[in-house]
Amino acid sequence: MTLSDLASVGSLVSAIAVLVSLIYLAQQTRQNTRHTRALIQQGRAVQSTDNPLRWAESETLADLYMRGNAGDRSLSRVEVMRYTMLIVSLFWYFEDQFHQHRDGLVADDRFEGTRATVAIDFRWPGFRACWRQNRYLFGGPFRAFMDDILSRATLEAAPDPVEAWNRSLDAESAADG
Fold this sequence. Notes:
The chain has seven helices and no strands. The chain is mainly alpha-helical. It has two domains: 1-55; 58-169, no CATH class. Helix 2 packs across helix 3 (77-102) and helix 2 (59-70) crosses helix 5 (125-134). The longest helix is centred in the first third of the chain and has 55 residues, at 3-57. The N and C termini lie far apart (89 Å).
């Protein structure tokens, strides 16, 4: 075997080693992408449950949320401020989901839940008013996203949770009957 042949064998082995390294790197990249998406989804789950759990634990917050969404004009100055902070925190959550979706980190089907939630919330007068008062806090693309949903939302009275609960129970009873 000549020195030239030995160099050719060395080049072949080197090329195979590089190929194996690239395959390994591609697998690691795919796995890291899956892990990153899993962490993002876990963060979404935590964010999505945090506010509703707080409202469930606090009769005062739950009452404020319902009264604010209904556009209750009897809210005090402090209650209006608290309601605004509550809803603006939701806007920041929605903005985070918007940007993660736009950056390809949240799948379309998962983001559809965020879009649907915004559309439902924009039916209520207090939520709409809060957005209009605070939309300047957000960047153009997110503002356009929210404004588009708002432009298609129909204003409705905020639902009475007891009436909605009873209608649902009646529907279930009728379906079983």
